[in-house]
Structure formats: C-alpha cells, structure tokens
C-alpha cells in the first residue's frame, strides 16, 4: 500500500514516530496518575483513585451537538451532556431530564415534565427553552448539520431544513421552564431511543452566543449539563480529559473523578501502554486478538458498526454503470479480508444492514438474513471480470485509475491495501490508496470529495431504518450519487404509512434493502469488531452495541 509520504514505505521513520508517540503518551498519562479521591473512598469496593485512563484510535472532531457526525464525538457528548433520556445497560431509555412523559394523539404528541434545579456548568439553569433552541439550531439550514434529517419526523422539520419554513414553526415548544411539548408528523416507535442520543440533547444558547463559531471547537468553548465536563482539549490535541461535573444533578451516581483519553492510531502503542499499566483499555487488532483470547481482561465486542466501499458516481461517470459496480463488489474476497488481514473478529456483511438490527415481528427472523442478496456480497473473480468487460463496452471506458480514500488507522490501512490488491486483479483497474487522518476523511466524504472511499457507519438505535435512510434521496450521508425512486418509496411508506403496522413496515424495509443490494448502490465489506482489553477492576461500563458505545456515568474503579 502506498504511504502518505509519497508512495514509499518509510519503515524506520514509522518506528521512530511510533516510539516517540508511545513515550509522549506515557509522559501524559503518568502526569495524570494522581487524582482527587472519589466520594466513595470509604466504601470497601471502590479504589482510592477513581481515574480511568482510556485510549482512542481517532482524534476528537467536535464537541458541538449540531455538527457531530462520528461515533467518538457523540461518545464524548454522551458523557458530558444530558438529555431527556439515557439508555440503561439493556439499551432501554430511562428518564434523565424527563421526569414524566405523556404520549397522546396516537403517538404523535409528547409532553415532557422536566427535572427542576439542573444547572449548566456556566451556572445557567437547564430549561425547556434549551431543547427548543438546540433542535431549531440543528435543523436550521445555516447550521448545515449532516444529521438534521433525523428530526424530519418532527413537525415542519424537513420544510425548515430546506428553507421553506421558519425555524420558529418547528414542532417543539416550551410551556414555561419545565414543560416541553413535541409534535410529530407520524407515530415513531423508536422515538424515545432517539431522544437518548446526544443529537436531541439541549444546548445552552448563552454559550453559543458568547463563543460564536468557536463553540464546540475546544474545551474552553463548551459548557456541560452531564456527568462530566470536557477539559484539556485544544481542538486539535490528541488527548483530553473528562472531569467530573460537580454541578451535575445526579453527581452522587458518578464515581469517576476523571477520564483521561489519549489518541493512539497504532494499536501496538496503546497495547504497550496497557501492558505497562499506563492505560486501562486498548483496542486490539489482528494477532493481538488471537494472542489475548484467554487474557482475563479480554472483552469481545461486535457493535452494529460497518465498513463499506462507496463508488462516487458524481466523480467517476463509469461508476453509474451497474456492471462496473457489481464487478468491483465481486472482486473483493471479504472472507480473506476479515480472517487473514484484520484477524480481529470482524465478520463479512450479508448486506448494508448488519446483524443485530432487529427481527421480523411475526417470524422472528433476523433482518440481515431475511434481506440477504448473495450476489451483492459474494466473491467471484471470473464473474467480476466478465461484468467489468461488459461495463467497459457499455460506457466506452477501457480502464479505471481511481484513488481510494481511507483513514490512517492501522486496520483501515490494512483493509485498504487488501482492497487495492483485489481490485487490481480486474483488467485495466489501478487503485491508488490515500490514507489521511480520520477528521479530514469525514470532512472530505461529507463534501463528496472522493472517487472511492471506505465509509463506516454506526447505528444510533437498533432498527434497520437507521442504516437504510443513509441512501435515501436528500440524505446528507448519501454522497456517492445512488438514486432509486423505488427505494425512496419503500422507505417513505415504511415510515409515513406503516408506522403503526409493524409487519407491513418490516416487509418494506426488507424490500428496500434488497433493492439497494440488487442495484449495488454500495459495496458492503464487514461488520467491525471492537475487541479490547479492559482492566478487570473497571466496573459498570454501560456499553451500547447499537448506538453511542460507552456511557461512563456509573463506571468505577474497584479495589
């Protein structure tokens, strides 16, 4: 695989950089070794020092709820902010700022009684108006939020986002300081789960007015109402701290005094830090997973996170041809990719929607099995060559030289190198790999500034729609140019016509997935495993495989 230094593998330089990173990391974490004592020091099960040292493999992109798009940003927001609900260890929404919820009008009207006496870290009270401001800000066209479409089930949200109605017409209003009313356009069975996602949390308007465009770009430009507050983040730094928020309404349930987070794109570095007891967790890749199967700290996770290959039809006209898209898919041996390259427990996908995203309400069959289109995710190099030849003839193209854009993490680069090799077995195909930092990658993908790219997607809640609406017409995440009126109609009916008819809704979603796969609208690769070492004395980590993964509100370090 080509290296970011211009195509030559500077192995010695890489070793020096890795060693330097590890040394710097040790210094950072060593400096965090002393912490204030937890309120639970006197309790026999709690360690004296309640500090969690954590590693991430990508940098933090933003702390602005309206502008976050990636899992890590939402993870930080989940732990520093508070909304109407939080998910418990079973993924069930439980009241947080909402003390009472009343649902009327056949599931289209919600009234929330809010918790009183809750404060932002700047001293302002948290009120219903903060929710109104947050939701209006996210759907406003000038904010350009990629996630605004998640609000489209709220009355007038879609019209507001397209500039057809004023933000004041959004179906949310404050009835005094502690009563919030929300009007939907249709019944939404998973609405409470959405409300437990940071995108639907409140935002302090005074802070946004004070910091302007800088809001959420560094820890000093943020305020919090959650269990922790973000500190020591410059906006570009590869380390930050989540410090216990002493003004949090439920601070008695919070045991950790701080969480030190350090970015290490190289799992060898983070693994060495864990072994040296400088960190409490590390992701594992490849051989590390095999070597640690019997490690008492080993935790295998298979979140509903996927990796796919998108072919940008707007940048490369040949990708508008079905036979070329299908040829690219058939040329990739997903089994070899997961077993021989990644070696981390990741599994080949059966379609765009991964496993654990729901079951048929009548038969109980899993969605990924019922919607399986074998040809869309199979490996058949001979058939791929035949289809590519046919596609070349149909388009008048004789060769395809394109760039594959991917992240600079170890696993991403390994996967891209494998994909490059497989695709170059096709006649006339040459792939140049470009690996860049994750924050830059998601920016280029959002701007549709790529020819081919490896995209990742992590669901917010366990329902197939949370994947399928990515490729709906008008979706800000549909950056590759896929367009199908049949697909759009199926999704529109499932959400707007069959909201209270689960079997019909399910049938439409299955058909939509099959349509996407029969069109080869995207090329599914694998469901991403996140196996890790997590020190045994780290207790009560609430892990959500189908949404924002880590909630540390009740986590503690045991003796």
From TrEMBL:
Residues 93-476 form the Solute-binding protein family domain. The keyword Signal applies. InterPro entries: Peptide/Ni-bd (IPR030678), SBP_5 (IPR039424), SBP_5_dom (IPR000914). Gene3D superfamilies: Dipeptide-binding Protein, Domain 1, Dipeptide-binding Protein, Domain 3, Periplasmic binding protein-like II. It is found in: Cell envelope. SUPFAM superfamilies: Periplasmic binding protein-like II (SSF53850). It holds the Pfam family SBP_bac_5. It comes from the Bacteria. Transmembrane segments: none annotated. GO terms for biological process: peptide transport. GO terms for cellular component: ATP-binding cassette (ABC) transporter complex; cell envelope; periplasmic space. Keywords: Peptide transport, Protein transport, Signal, Transport. CDD domains: PBP2_OppA. One of its GO terms (molecular function) is peptide transmembrane transporter activity. Belongs to the bacterial solute-binding protein 5 family. This is ABC-type oligopeptide transport system, periplasmic component.
């Amino acid at each position: 695989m080509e290296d970011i230094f211009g195509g030559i593998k500077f192995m010695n330089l890489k070793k020096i950089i890795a060693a330097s990173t590890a040394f710097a990391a040790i210094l950072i974490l060593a400096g965090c070794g002393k912490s204030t004592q937890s309120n639970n020091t006197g309790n026999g099960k709690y360690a004296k020092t309640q500090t969690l040292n954590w590693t991430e493999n990508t940098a933090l992109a933003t702390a602005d709820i309206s502008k976050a798009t990636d899992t890590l940003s939402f993870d930080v927001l989940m732990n520093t902010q508070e909304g109407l609900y939080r998910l418990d260890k079973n993924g069930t929404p439980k009241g947080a700022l909402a003390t009472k919820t009343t649902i009327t009008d056949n599931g289209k009207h919600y009234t929330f009684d809010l918790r009183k006496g809750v404060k932002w870290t700047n001293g302002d009270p948290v009120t219903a108006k903060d929710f109104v401001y947050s939701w209006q800000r996210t759907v406003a066209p000038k904010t350009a939020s990629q996630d605004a479409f998640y609000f489209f089930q709220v009355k007038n949200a879609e019209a507001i986002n397209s500039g057809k109605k004023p933000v004041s017409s959004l179906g949310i209003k404050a009835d005094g300081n502690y009563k919030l009313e929300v009007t939907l356009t249709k019944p939404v069975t998973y609405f409470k789960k959405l409300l437990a996602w940071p995108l639907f949390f409140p935002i302090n308007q005074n802070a946004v007015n004070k910091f302007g465009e800088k809001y959420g770009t560094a820890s000093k430009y943020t305020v919090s109402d959650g269990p922790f507050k973000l500190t020591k983040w410059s906006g570009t730094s590869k380390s930050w701290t989540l410090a216990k928020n002493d003004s949090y309404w439920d601070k008695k349930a919070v045991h950790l005094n701080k969480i030190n987070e350090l970015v290490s794109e190289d799992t060898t570095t983070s693994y060495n830090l864990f072994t040296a007891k400088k960190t409490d967790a590390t992701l594992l890749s490849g051989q590390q997973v095999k070597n640690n199967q019997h490690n008492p700290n080993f935790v295998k996770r298979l979140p509903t996170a996927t990796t796919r290959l998108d072919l940008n039809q707007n940048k490369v006209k040949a990708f508008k041809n079905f036979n070329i898209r299908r040829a690219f898919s058939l040329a990739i041996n997903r089994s070899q990719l997961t077993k021989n390259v990644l070696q981390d427990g990741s599994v080949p996908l059966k379609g765009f929607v991964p496993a654990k995203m729901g079951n048929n309400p009548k038969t109980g069959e899993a969605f990924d099995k019922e919607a399986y289109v074998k040809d869309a995710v199979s490996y058949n190099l001979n058939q791929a060559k035949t289809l590519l030849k046919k596609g070349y003839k149909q388009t008048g193209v004789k060769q395809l030289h394109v760039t594959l854009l991917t992240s600079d993490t170890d696993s991403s680069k390994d996967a891209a190198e494998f994909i490059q090799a497989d695709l170059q077995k096709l006649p006339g195909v040459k792939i140049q790999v470009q690996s860049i930092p994750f924050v830059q990658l998601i920016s280029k993908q959002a701007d549709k500034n790529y020819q081919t790219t490896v995209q990742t997607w992590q669901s917010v809640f366990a329902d197939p729609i949370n994947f399928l609406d990515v490729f709906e017409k008008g979706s800000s995440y549909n950056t590759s140019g896929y367009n199908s009126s049949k697909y759009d109609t199926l999704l529109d009916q499932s959400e707007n016509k069959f909201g209270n008819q689960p079997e019909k809704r399910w049938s439409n979603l299955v058909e939509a997935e099959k349509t996407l796969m029969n069109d080869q609208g995207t090329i599914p690769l694998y469901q991403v495993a996140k196996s890790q070492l997590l020190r045994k004395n780290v207790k009560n980590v609430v892990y959500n495989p189908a949404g924002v993964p880590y909630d540390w509100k009740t986590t503690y370090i045991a003796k």
